[in-house]
Specification:
238 residues; alpha/beta; Elongation Factor Tu (Ef-tu), domain 3; Rossmann fold; 2 domains; six-stranded antiparallel beta sheet
Amino acid sequence: MQIYWTKINKIIDETPEVKTYLLDCPEDYTWEEGSHIHLALEGFNAGEKPNRSLIRHMSISTLPNEFAIGITTRIREQCSEFKSILRNLKIGDDVAIFKTHSNVPLKREDKNVYLLSSGVGLATFRPLVLDYFERADNVNQIHSLNIDSSKEFLFTDIFKSAADKKFTAAYVDNRKDYYEEVKSLAKDSDGLFYVVGSDEFLAQNIEVLRGEGIKPEQIMLDKHEQQRAKFISMDLLV
C-alpha cells in the first residue's frame, strides 16, 4: 500500500459547519468520479499499529482536471478527535492519503440517473455531475435530490436545474417531503438510483425503493460489494 503525504493548499468554508480542504495532487496520482480515499493525520502511523482514530474514509469531491484533491466534510462544534484536529489544520500542513477506490462511478447505460443524498453526502456526487456535464454520452438525464435539515445546502452553483444539460436538482429540509419525492422518482422502473449518506439513511432509502419495485441491481451504494450485499439482504428480510 502506497501512502502519499501531501499538503493542504486551500480551505473553503462552504457553510458555517462544512469545509472543503483542497490538497495538492501527488505526481501521477489520479482517480475517477465517485472515488473515496483514506485521509490520515500526522502521527497516525507513529506506533507499531496505525492509530485508527486519526484515519477517516472520505469521498473525493473534485475531478482530476481540477488539479486538487477535494475533501468536503461537516465539522460540528462537538466533534471527534479526528475532526477537531482537522478543523485546526492550516494551509501548508501535511496530511496522508491512501487506498483510493470508486464504488459509484457514473454508469452510462442510456438510462435516467437519480442521485439521492443526505447533507454533505452530496460531495460524493459533485464529481459525477461535473463528469456528466463534460460528457453526457449514454446518460439520458440526471436528477439530484438532497435532504439537509440545516437548510445550508451545498454546491448550489453546480446543483441547479439546467434544461439544456438535462439536469435537475432539488433540495428539501425534512424527511416527509424527501421520501415522498423518492417514491415519486421510483416510478421510473428502469432508472438507476445512487444513494449516499449514513447507514441508517441508506437502509431507509433501500426499503422505500424496493417497496416501489426498484430492483437491487438498480441501486448503487458507496460501499464495497460485500457491504452493499449486506444492505440489500437486510432489506430482503424486512
